[in-house]
Specification:
The complex is a heterodimer. By secondary structure, chain A is mainly α. Chain A has eight helices and no strands. Chain A is flat, with a radius of gyration of 21 Å. Chain B is of the alpha/beta class. A six-stranded mixed β-sheet of chain B has the order 6-7-8-3-9-10, with helices on both faces. A four-stranded antiparallel β-sheet of chain B has the order 2-1-4-5, covered by helices on one side. Classes of the chains: A mainly alpha, B alpha/beta.
Chain lengths: 216, 270
């Protein structure tokens, strides 16, 4: 049983690169959108809060594959031309925003109410309270679960293969179709995903420990 | 138990005390805080029932009473942390009940210190103190430093500027909280059971800071369980019971209670 050839490996690494690009897109897009979701969910008026909650429930209750398909196959029927990369970025961002929004909502709400009250009594405006008192504390709480969730993002980008995007998983399928060496091919794929995710989970665990120590 | 004595603010042990309504113009001691028959209910529970009292500029008023008597709620109403259902409160010229109240201006004029300190844990002592003067008063760097140094000296913690709250004792944290309020140069300081979470030794160091503050002429309203402190430092003591001002007078009133309720309260040594 021979190993993969140089060009095949190169093809895989290209896929790996796209997986990284997709992950970053999903994290940045989903992070920005998720921040808005978290803020609206905590500080919005009652109808806004309910609407945001509905958004979260809808997205969390929809498989990512369906979200990606909606973006890639659904939007063109509305007359929008969309590239696989854009569709994948969009679908992933929406998916991530619902989860990060909910994680961050919890973190914002876990900052004691008395902190906000104390800042209010010092005549700080809502923005000032948020920027200088609430968010810095919420961010410390949010870092471990956020980094932990990044692992999920990396793995979930593999679903973009379903809409024709050649990232790591899809590259693996292509090579397997040509070489028919499924075991070795998918072992390499798994190893590459692991190489991406493991540092993230180690980082997450380390942050968690640090956070616990800081709170003792 | 029958109510032999008339409750409410009618009972005044001293004639010098300002009664609600006699906010006499031209009086040099005209009140800086005027609480006029405020009422408030939490659901069916009437926590404040027509409470009135005035606080003259530069005076110290201590509010005492059993837990649940409404004393903390009354204090929180003054800083609009609670809204009243009825009545009026006037603080430094701000009508608290007005819908057009400038809440931020009110909070610049009124400082409040809580039982649980509520320091910002992610900032050093100095950053805690400088935050509001920097963001709200927009002071320059040198001025901020100077102000922080001054208020820290005032509470006897000049050497703790760079410490984090978690590195300080409860008493020190509370003194930083006082300094943080003072840094905004408020006209009135409110103290909500600020020593209740502290052991006697640490209580002493916080009370000494407050006593000095009173001697410097700060207008102070404090809800407290420290009867000795109320007797000694307060110009006026207000005993609250069942959401009413039950008895009110100078500190000496505690030695000769007129109502059975105050008598029992003092006797119980709370």
């Amino acid at each position: 049983m021979s190993l993969l050839t140089g060009p095949q490996l190169q093809f895989l690494f290209q896929g790996l690169l796209w997986t990284v690009v997709l992950s970053v897109m999903a994290f940045v897009g989903g992070g920005l959108l998720g921040f808005a979701v978290a803020i609206l969910r905590v500080y919005g008026s009652a109808p806004v809060r309910n609407l945001t909650m509905l958004y979260i429930k809808l997205v969390q209750g929809t498989p990512l594959l369906v979200l990606l398909s909606l973006a890639y196959f659904g939007l063109p029927t509305l007359g929008l031309r969309i590239e696989p990369l854009t569709a994948a970025g969009l679908g992933l961002s929406i998916y991530v925003s619902a989860y990060l929004g909910e994680i961050w909502r919890g973190c914002i709400e876990s900052v004691p109410r008395t902190q906000n009250e104390a800042a209010e009594c010092l005549a700080l405006s809502w923005r000032q309270r948020l920027a200088h008192v609430i968010l810095p504390q919420a961010m410390r709480i949010a870092t471990p679960p956020t980094v932990g969730f990044m692992v999920q993002i990396v793995k979930n980008t593999s679903l973009a293969s379903a809409i024709g995007f050649v990232e790591l998983a899809r590259a693996g399928q292509v090579i397997n179709n040509a070489t028919f060496k499924p075991f070795i091919t998918f072992m390499v794929i798994a190893a590459l995903y692991f190489a991406l995710c493991y540092p993230l989970s180690v980082w997450s665990r380390r942050l968690e420990r640090k956070f616990h120590v800081a709170n003792r | 138990m029958s109510q032999i004595v008339k409750p409410a603010s009618v009972i005044n042990s001293a004639d010098s005390v300002h009664r609600p309504g006699d906010a006499s113009r031209g009086n040099p001691m005209s009140p800086i805080v005027r609480v006029d028959s405020i009422s408030k209910s939490f659901g069916a529970n009437r926590v404040l029932d027509g409470v009135s009292f005035n606080v003259a500029k530069g005076s110290v008023v201590a509010i005492i009473g059993r837990s649940g008597s409404g004393k903390s709620t009354a204090l929180r109403c003054i800083d609009r942390l609670e809204t009243v259902d009825a009545g009026r409160i006037d603080v430094c010229g701000h009508d608290i009940t007005s819908p057009r109240l400038d809440l931020q201006q009110l909070r610049r004029d009124v400082g409040i210190v809580f039982q649980s300190y509520n320091l910002f844990p992610h900032m050093t002592v100095e950053q805690n103190i400088m935050l509001a003067p920097r963001l709200v008063l927009k002071l320059g760097k040198a001025e901020l430093r100077e102000r922080a140094r001054m208020v820290l000296a005032q509470v006897g913690l000049a050497d703790k500027a760079d410490a984090y709250p978690s590195q300080l004792s409860g008493g020190q944290q509370q003194r930083v909280a006082i300094a943080r309020s003072l840094a905004m140069s408020p006209q009135v300081m409110l103290f909500d059971e600020v020593t209740s979470a502290l052991d006697p030794e640490l209580t002493g160091e916080v009370l000494r800071v407050m006593e000095k503050l009173a001697a410097d002429g700060m207008t102070m309203i404090l809800v407290t369980h420290e009867m000795g402190f109320a007797r000694k430092v307060a110009d006026e003591v207000i005993f609250m019971h069942r959401g009413k001002v039950w008895e009110q007078g100078p500190g000496a009133m505690l030695d000769a209670p007129r109502t059975e309720e105050l008598h029992n309260f003092v006797a119980s040594g709370l």
